[in-house]
Amino acid sequence: QARLCAMKRGALIVFEGGDHSGKTTQCTKLIHAFESAGEKVKLFKFPDRTSTIGQMINNYLGSKCEIEDHSVHLLFSANRWEKQPRMMELLESGTTLIVDRYAFSGVAFTAAKPGFAIEWCKQPDIGLPRPDLVCFLTLDTEAAAKRGTFGGERYERTDFQKKVMNNFEKLKDSTWKEIDADKSIDDLHKEILDLATTTMASVAQNPIEKL
Ligand code: DGP
């Protein structure tokens, strides 16, 4: 019993939301805050464009190649699976993971394409570690537009992004916290730091669940 209590696992904290909602900025700030507090934390970002699969995804997103829609869905999932062993190892050894996009992006983006059912889209990610907290950053279209125009990557179109946000709504469960991202970087950070700190304290004794 005493030994079990000493083995504090890390928390899995995921950021989801539309493009331009500030996920990457907030992930970076959260990592820095935890590091300064002496916590064991590590950042993951999906898609991870550094692996062989990640490079295929990078070329696809930059429209340097075409990949059939089902195939690319499976590649995005494979890109998460290739990181799964390392993620589990870190979580079990007490490191908290901050993850910039995860399986929910996988589902929300593919299901925004014609002919894709949410249930089909969920299948390849079944078995990945389940997040303890999903920070879902929302930003209305007007506020998003103020943050500049979309770059040239595939999916960066307002009509497509609306469908994506609509799909995220269908994926929410009790681990999701919807956060209005239309505020200053520092105010948003404080809100997120609070949520993340509470989550880290509460999950320590719970087993890591699976999607
Ligand atoms: P980012 O590097 O966070 O800007 O993500 C790149 C783009 O890829 C962005 O438009 C979101 C999209 N995306 C992220 N994960 C997935 C996924 O698993 N499947 C699909 N189809 N798109 C994804």
TrEMBL record:
This is Thymidylate kinase. Belongs to the thymidylate kinase family. GO terms for biological process: dTDP biosynthetic process; dTTP biosynthetic process; dUDP biosynthetic process. Keywords: ATP-binding, Kinase, Nucleotide biosynthesis, Nucleotide-binding, Transferase. GO terms for molecular function: ATP binding; dTMP kinase activity; nucleoside diphosphate kinase activity. GO terms for cellular component: cytosol; mitochondrion; nucleus. Transmembrane segments: none annotated. It is an enzyme of class 2 (transferase). Its EC number is 2.7.4.9. The chain holds residues 59 to 269 of 281 of the full protein. Pathway: Pyrimidine metabolism; dTTP biosynthesis. Residues 15-192 form the Thymidylate kinase-like domain.
